[in-house]
Amino acid sequence: MMQRMHILLALVLLFFLDAAAALAGGTIEGMAMFTSTPRRNPLIQMGADPNCQRINEGKKVVQKMVDIQRDRSIDNVFVHVLGDLPAGSVPAEPVVIDQQGCIYHPRVSAGVTGQTLAITNSDPTLHNVHTKSEQGNGFNVGQPKAGMRHEHTLKGEEVMLRVKCDVHPWMTGFVGVKKNPYFAVTREGGKFTIENVPAGTYTVQAWQERLGAIDQEVTVVEGETVTVEFGFGPPGSASLDEPAFTLPVRDLVVPYVEAVASER
Ligand SMILES: [Cu+2]
């Protein structure tokens, strides 16, 4: 009798676990690709700060305005689901941007409102972290030593919050700030995954600092994975009128994949 009860209980438990999994929604995964002829990203001249130059001795540091890979996939693209979605809980772990070699790592990151954005300095030189925001995400902090850390609680939604350094004009970073957790940044071959999305039809947007933003309609089915590919053309061809970050045209030279491959 007792044994039968146990089996029954186990079955009931299994039923509820199944139901919980089903309520977890669906998954959106995919890639960001460059569909045109890649151009070489410009090299950064760090002569303005001998410390930065010394840290990067013997290295060629590239301004990765388009973080294109050999297979033309694009990393550091911010992908997010548009519309009103449930906020969910705020992750305890911060979004971390490290200043290393006088560059922001990662160049593009993302977090939810209420989450901590931590900026750390791994360089033995002065950085001045400066953001401008009308959504409460503005701050301006000097970090003269390695090991320093500044924390900011992300306040309002913002696509995108730009991070700059007043000492080193080439330093550029972006943070996507959203109220809900349905976003990702493409990594390791332009790939992204957004999990536990409530079933429904959405507009999903992929944002790239120079190539603009692309919207695609996506239908998420409970318990299933939908795949979406974002194909970016050259600057100016996507829906964003102006690139968020502009360098002089003379810096954008040398077409072809070989050039892209050689800087990696
Ligand atoms: Cu700096």
Question: Helices, strands, pairings?
Answer:
Blueprint: H1 2-23, E1 26-34, H2 50-55, E2 67-68, E3 74-75, E4 78-81, E5 95-100, E6 103-105, E7 108-112, E8 116-121, E9 127-131, E10 139-143, E11 149-153, E12 158-165, E13 172-178, E14 183-185, E15 191-197, E16 200-208, E17 212-220, E18 225-232, H3 257-262
Parallel strand pairs: 1-18, 5-8, 7-13
Antiparallel strand pairs: 1-15, 2-3, 4-14, 4-16, 5-6, 8-11, 9-10, 9-12, 12-13, 16-17
Bound molecules: copper (II) ion.
Residues 102, 127, 165, 167-168, 171 line the site of copper (II) ion.
Account of the protein in words:
The protein has two domains: 23-83 and 187-264, Immunoglobulin-like; 86-181, Immunoglobulin-like (Sandwich), CATH 2.60.40. The protein is 13% helix and 39% strand. It is mainly beta and 264 residues long. Strand 5 and strand 6 (103-105) form a beta hairpin. It has helices at 2-23, 50-55, 257-262, and strands at 26-34, 67-68, 74-75, 78-81, 95-100, 103-105, 108-112, 116-121, 127-131, 139-143, 149-153, 158-165, 172-178, 183-185, 191-197, 200-208, 212-220, 225-232. The strands form five sheets. It has a five-stranded mixed sheet, with no helix packed on it. The protein has a four-stranded antiparallel sheet with strand order 14-4-16-17, with no helix packed on it. The longest helix has 22 residues, at 2-23. The protein contains three helices and 18 strands. Mean pLDDT is 86; it is low at 239-264. Bound molecules: copper (II) ion. Copper (II) ion is lined by residues 102, 127, 165, 167-168, 171.
